[in-house]
Design brief:
This protein is an alpha+beta fold. The protein folds into 3 domains: 177 residues, GAF domain (Beta-Lactamase), CATH 3.30.450.40; 77 residues; 121 residues, 2-Layer Sandwich (Heat Shock Protein 90). Helices cover 55% and strands 19% of the residues. It contains 11 helices and 11 strands. The structure holds adenosine-5'-triphosphate (ATP) and magnesium ion (MG). The site of adenosine-5'-triphosphate (ATP) has 20 residues, from helix 10 and helix 11. Adenosine-5'-triphosphate binds next to helix 10 and helix 11.
């Protein structure tokens, strides 16, 4: 059968409606495909950005690192020119916790040295009133920050509430240069991101509070120790010394014929002198004087000299460290060596102290029986608290039969 090119045959004619439906379906699928791809890509970007931040939280990074990463991740995601994380302060100002700028934009911030007045007409002020996102053209912002926007050609600002533990904590702000308004779904995308970011802030906040409270505990304990040491020195120790002197004077005034009385007084003086020595040693143990006077290196050498197990001491010569770091490292070595004596049955031990720029690394190692377990005592756990309170890390490796190492890194 002859047919004209392009003319429908009976079969195709019969299938015409089906073909049309298939074509329509294919078109719909294509359209759906594209939008799905776009949506999937956006979700993947969003997830990637959040994952970056979540990884930092999981690693226990400091809040400032997390905030900077969040500001950067959000900025890239919503194509902002600048982003900031702001915290509401009690006096109607905002503190900028992080400020990010897109590559290629002028380096303009953070505004007002990082603390700016909230005003009444800024997006963050609107967020404070309504607890929901707010967007404004800079031209309509009369407050100081509006002037700063215009001076730097910022045309639009969008702010999203950051709610932590049911409290309005601050805002995440996106700033856009030029006159074009941001895409209409920016608020929604920011909101979604900020919602997920809250977890990071809560964790960062909790961890930060935890570290601060640990630091308070440790420094509190050190301060108490210092106070007891001073009280012992200035109080009981001095009174015992003067009592011993008075008894010695009394002893000398006893006539020779009262030999027994003289003898008893002399014994009392000896006892008292022994007690004073004991007290002096006790208070010296609370905070080693060598540490205050001659520094960590000398104090460690003194600990090693007193240790019955041979200890090799390797110290990077040089600078003194912060007092609280020196005190902590001293107690790490003191506890680790005490453990060597008490538990390790070791033939040798070693101490290595490396000081590189701002970082300090201390290792105490023994060749004893291994098997150390912090759950069985309080010494090793106390060391962990002490070191982590300074932002450091401690690693205890102690395979049974293969010795123990305690490695501390600070800075
Ligand atoms: N160097 C070591 N070699 C072998 N075992 C060790 C060593 N250090 C610690 N241990 C084991 O780990 C446990 C926990 O040590 P930790 O220092 O926390 O407590 P402790 O020494 O028993 O008591 P304290 O609270 O007085 O320090 C110890 O009881 C001991 O069994
Ligand atoms: Mg111990």
């Amino acid at each position: 059968m002859d047919t004209q090119a392009g003319a429908p045959t009976g079969a195709t004619r019969a299938h015409g409606p089906l073909t049309r439906r298939l074509r329509a379906l294919r078109n719909r699928l294509n359209v759906t495909d594209h939008s799905d791809c776009g949506e999937i890509r956006r979700l993947a970007e969003e997830r990637g950005a959040l994952q970056q931040v979540a990884t930092l939280v999981a690693r226990g990074s400091s809040p400032s690192v997390i905030f900077n990463a969040a500001a950067c991740a959000l900025g890239g995601l919503i194509k902002a020119d600048y982003t900031a994380i702001n915290r509401y302060e009690g006096d109607r100002t905002m503190s900028i916790m992080a400020f990010w700028r897109a590559p290629g934009t002028p380096d303009i911030g953070p505004p007002f040295g990082g603390r700016w007045t909230l005003g009444d007409d800024t997006p963050s002020a609107a967020v404070l009133r309504g607890h929901k996102p707010s967007s404004r053209a800079s031209a309509t912002i009369r407050s100081d920050i509006g002037g700063w926007h215009r001076a730097h050609r910022i045309g639009h600002a969008v702010a999203c509430p950051v709610i932590v533990d049911d409290d309005l904590w601050g805002t995440m702000t996106a700033l856009y240069l030029g006159t074009d308004p941001p895409e209409c779904d920016v608020e929604e995308r920011m909101g979604k991101f900020v919602e997920l970011l809250n977890c990071a802030i809560i964790q960062a906040k909790t961890r930060c509070e935890l570290i601060t409270s640990r630091a308070r505990l440790v420094t509190g304990a050190d301060a108490t120790r210092r106070r007891i040491e001073r009280d012992l020195h200035d109080g009981a120790q001095q009174r015992l010394i003067s009592l011993a002197l008075r008894l010695r004077e009394a002893e000398e005034t006893v006539p020779p014929e009262h030999r027994e009385l003289r003898q008893r007084l002399s014994e009392a003086v000896q006892d008292l002198t022994g007690t004073v020595d004991e007290l002096r040693e006790l208070s010296a143990g609370l905070r080693p004087p060598a540490l205050a006077v001659r520094g960590l290196d000398a104090a460690l050498a003194q600990l090693v000299a007193r240790c019955p197990v041979p200890v090799e001491l390797n110290i990077d010569a040089g600078r003194r460290l912060d007092e609280e770091i020196e005190v902590s490292l001293y107690y790490v070595v003191s506890e680790a060596l005490t453990n060597v004596l008490k538990h390790a049955n070791a033939s040798t031990a070693s101490i290595d102290l490396e000081k590189e720029n701002t970082r300090v690394c201390l290792t105490v190692r023994d060749d004893g029986v291994g098997g150390a377990d912090p759950a069985r005592g309080s010494g090793l756990t106390g060391l962990r608290d002490r070191v982590e309170a300074l932002g450091g890390t401690i690693k205890i490796t102690s395979p049974p039969g293969h010795g123990t190492s305690v490695v501390v890194a600070i800075g």
